[in-house]
């Protein structure tokens, strides 16, 4: 399920590829919450294996017909050896995209915009330069990554400034406006003509957040809170804006801030997530993510037509076993099971949240490291 959803382009290879690395902390026994713990032996083993592979700590929560089950392994703080908790809040990275797409589809259902509206109709002159043309790109193409718009996190200067050690330590608290991020992308040529191919681009969702604000008159964060978080009572989920800390309970987040998985490990928990914007700034916990994706797939957030639109997928070379819809990914696991959801990566954090097509079996998990570990292995263990 790794769809280059980490917020770096070049840095995606550094932050999300599973590489062999010495363990930061020894794996402790999995800790289990309420529910039918006897039914998840493979998932428990996969959680513990991720820690043996070098991730400091993991937290995972499953919700299905039998109830809610949680497991943790490893530590949430390498200084104190405090364990991870099933209640940990964490940065979810590109899982944010599903929330953003849901709001835009709600607006379509209300007749306030069309997926076939051009970007320029809502954001005149914003997508322009080096071959980019907002007149030729639709809202739909933003949401399913067929716009061809350059990914701003693949800009080399951006990567050096916000993902590698010297730049990150100097700039971790900088505030960047959405237009600043789009302007970085406009310095480059598009990947292809709109609608002719597929390429994951965080710029698409920065623009999607800007469209929400233009349509509603409110920041996209306000609309997510009003339309999703409050109705579903997702009390652990937030859109932090420029807030640099993660609300408690939470663990620390760790990264290498380097082009390899070797070398020192840094605490990267505190940062200004405005560099991620609507492409990946949100914070949540595993129980909330289970509830969100279950509600979404069960039709509680979108009318049937809009949910069908969201689940209409395209395929690209980057996602050979998956299809990407509108902020929602379908993955066919090795065992043939289909799951829907998204994954996400940001400094010191790798997450995945998936559910079955009927929304009745959901899993969300987080790794507090960005240089090693495979969330997909836990997903396969739970569903296969």
Report on this model:
By secondary structure, this protein is an alpha+beta fold. The chain has a single domain, classed as Beta-lactamase, CATH 3.40.710. It is built from 13 helices and 15 strands. Strands 1, 2, 3, 4, 11, 12, 13, 14 and 15 form a nine-stranded antiparallel sheet that branches. Strands 5-10 form a two-stranded antiparallel sheet. Strand 3 and strand 4 form a beta hairpin. Helix 2 runs antiparallel to helix 13, helix 3 packs parallel to helix 9 and helix 8 crosses helix 9. The radius of gyration is 19 Å and the shape is globular. GO terms for molecular function: hydrolase activity.
Whole-number mean pLDDT: 91
> What is the annotated CATH architecture?
3-Layer(aba) Sandwich
Low-confidence regions: 1-37
Write down the CATH topology.
Beta-lactamase
Strand content: 15-25%
Topology as H/E string? HEHEEEEHHEEHHHHHHEEEHHEEEEEH
Alpha-beta classification: alpha+beta
What is the C-level CATH assignment?
A: Alpha Beta
What is the fourth-level CATH superfamily? DD-peptidase/beta-lactamase superfamily
User: Biggest sheet: strands, sense, closure?
Assistant: 9 strands, antiparallel
**Taking Cα atoms only, what radius of gyration do you get, to the nearest Å?**
19 Å
> What sort of overall outline do the alpha carbons produce when their principal axes are compared?
globular
Count of all domains = 1
What is the number of beta strands?
15
Distance between the termini: 14 Å
Number of helices: 13
Summarize the amount of helix as a percent range. 25-40%
């Amino acid at each position: 399920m790794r769809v280059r959803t980490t917020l770096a382009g070049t840095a995606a290879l550094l932050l999300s590829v599973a590489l062999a690395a010495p363990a930061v902390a020894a794996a402790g026994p999995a800790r289990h919450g309420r529910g039918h713990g006897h039914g998840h032996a493979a998932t428990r083993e996969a959680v513990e294996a991720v820690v043996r592979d070098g991730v400091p700590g993991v937290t995972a929560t499953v919700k299905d017909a039998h109830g809610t089950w949680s497991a943790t392994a490893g530590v949430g703080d390498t200084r104190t050896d405090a364990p991870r908790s099933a209640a940990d809040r964490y940065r979810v990275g590109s899982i944010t995209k599903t929330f953003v797409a849901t709001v835009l589809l709600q607006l379509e259902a209300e007749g306030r915009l069309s997926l076939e509206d051009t970007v320029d109709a809502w954001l005149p002159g914003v997508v322009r330069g080096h071959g980019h043309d907002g007149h030729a790109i639709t809202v739909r193409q933003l949401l399913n990554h067929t716009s061809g718009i350059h990914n701003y996190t693949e800009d080399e200067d951006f990567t050096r400034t916000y993902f590698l050690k010297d730049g990150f330590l100097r700039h971790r608290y900088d505030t960047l406006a959405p237009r600043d991020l789009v302007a970085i992308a406009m310095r480059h040529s598009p990947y292809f003509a709109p609608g002719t191919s597929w390429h994951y681009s965080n710029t698409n969702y920065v623009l999607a957040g800007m469209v929400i604000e233009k349509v509603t008159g409110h920041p996209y964060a306000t609309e997510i809170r009003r339309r999703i978080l409050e109705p579903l009572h997702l009390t652990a989920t937030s859109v932090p804006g420029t807030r640099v800390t993660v609300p408690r309970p939470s663990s620390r987040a760790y990264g290498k801030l380097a082009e390899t998985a070797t070398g020192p490990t840094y605490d990267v928990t505190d940062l200004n997530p405005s560099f991620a914007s609507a492409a990946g700034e949100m914070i949540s916990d595993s129980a909330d993510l289970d509830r969100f994706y279950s509600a979404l797939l069960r039709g509680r957030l979108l009318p049937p037509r809009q949910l069908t639109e969201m689940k209409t997928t395209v395929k690209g070379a980057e996602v050979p076993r998956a299809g990407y819809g509108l902020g929602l990914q379908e993955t066919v696991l090795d065992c043939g099971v289909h799951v829907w959801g998204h994954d996400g990566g940001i400094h010191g954090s790798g997450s995945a949240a998936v559910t079955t097509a009927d929304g009745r079996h959901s899993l969300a998990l987080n790794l507090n490291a960005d240089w090693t570990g495979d969330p997909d292995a836990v997903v396969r263990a739970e569903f296969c």
